Amino acid sequence: MVFRKLAFVAAFVLLLFSALQAQNTKEVKKTVRDLSSPAMHGRGYVKNGDAKAADYIVKRMKKNGLKPCFENYKQNYVFDVNTFPGKMTLAVDDISLQPGLDFIIHPATGSLQKNFELVWLPDTLTQAGSVYSFIDTASIGKDKIVVVPDGVKNAWRYGISGVHSLVQRDKGRLWWHVARNQLPEGTVRMRIAEEKLPKTAKQLSINLEARFQQQHQASNIAGFVAGMQQPDSIILFLAHYDHLGRMGKDTYFPGASDNASGTAFVLDLASYYASHPEDARYTMVFLLVSGEEAGLLGSRYFAANAPFDLGKVVFAINFDMVGTGSEGITVINAKQLPYHFEMLNDINQRENLFTKVVERGESCNSDHCPFYEKGVPSFFIHTQGPENQHYHDVGDKSAALPFSKHEALFRLITSFSKQLAQKPHKRF
After folding, report:
1. Of 180, 208, 236, the domain-final residue
2. pLDDT by residue (tens digit) across 320-368?
3. Which of 97, 214, 226, 228 lies 20 to 30 angstroms, CA to CA, from 252?
């Protein structure tokens, strides 16, 4: 009887240990904290932020015992990018503003030190074309900057013909992006929080240092667990690990949701399949790409130079912004792949995982796209919920992500992968 009890306890402990190994929310949270910390410099192109993140991921793959797809897991490539490594100051009538919080500089801006006289346009303006009814652009010299109301959509991003420099008042959230070019010398476009640019303001003073990096070296990172039953068939899990980096020496963009969360999820899947190779019926490839914020550059490079035949990829799933989930998940390409979406949705309903699985159509808005364009059945999954509303801003920090539905997403994806291996292949 004693031996039976001991055997039961041992079996229970083993089962519990196995369950704990299946998904590790605590480790995922730590990964996101690490990747979104100041030490990673926003995983961009200043102070080797993206390279430091790449080395972190390589270390994790080695620790988990993944086999490398490339030497040292890295696939290197290059691209041009504009960066802001140093000075970044802005003052409105001698009142200093904070980068990222009070203002956003256009990411293609070059180095500039200048005082501008403000030229105000009426708040009623909603179209860029209406600008010419109120000002003679030919009379606006390079020492003046035009204040464009928020209602003229994306003027700060795309400019207005004939207007050399402009500033747009922002009534909402200040968000940033990446540029692979520079604007003409002396040109500046920016957004400033409405309350930081009062209508009584007369002058704007700017001093910023930009550095255009040609042939910046970036790396995709990939490892795999060999399939136990059909090693020539592949399931590909991917996410981008890069983010926006720094806007000046004192401001960085953490990128916890976008996309430290997706990176951490892929690494959690990698840890699971490495420790449970019996569940890897197909070969499981874990791909973390760079250059997404610069235009899906890493995933496009990998898809064009894959270390295996993409025709062998049974399915690919891209994870981007997966730290919430209280309001379900969204599945991009679901309408293009009804067979696979039905499979995924059935699992969700059967296991009661998410309140909602939203079916979306085709969209080339993340790293699934280059694979889908080459004929690989692909989903892009992101979670939904009000827990974190930050996107491309300085508030996208790890503390804002609950990961309360991490286990549900993990169960959904591992069950889906298992079912893929049990059903007949169907690409589209």
Report:
1. 208
2. 999 999 999 999 999 999 999 999 999 999 999 999 999 999 999 999 9
3. 214
Phi then psi for residue 272, to 5 deg, are -65, -50
Top pLDDT among 126 and 1 is at: 126
Return the biggest CA–CA distance within the chain: 97
> Are 76 and 216 spatial neighbours (Cβ–Cβ below 8 Å)?
no
**What would the mean pLDDT of 23-45 be, rounded to a whole number?**
95
Mean pLDDT calculated for residue range 268-285: 97
**Six token digits for residue 282:** 């197909």
Pairing label, strands 357-359, 74-83 = unpaired
CA angle 13, 281, 302 (to 5 degrees): 115
Of 241, 320, 284, the C-alpha closest to 414 is 284
- The answer on 257 and 123 residing in a single domain is no
- The domain in which residue 157 lies consists of 87-208
The pTM for the full model equals 0.93
pLDDT at 302 exceeding the cut of 50: yes
CB atoms within 10 A of CB 292: 24
Give the chain's domain count.
2
Q: Which residues contact 262 (CB under 8 A, 6 or more apart)?
A: 239, 240, 318, 319, 320, 321, 322
Average pLDDT value for residue range 96-116: 97
Smallest CA-to-CA distance from 415 within 265, 312, 279 is with 279
Contacts of 134 (CB under 8 A, 6+ apart): 121, 122, 125
Q: Among the ranges 1-15, 115-129, 343-357, which has the highest mean pLDDT value? A: 343-357
- Please report whether residue 301 resides in a domain: yes
C-alpha distances out from residue 299 to 219, 237, 243, 274, 427, Å: 10, 12, 14, 23, 20
Please tell me whether residues 277 and 405 are part of one structural domain. yes
Three-class SS state of 126:
coil
The average pLDDT across 5-11 equals 39
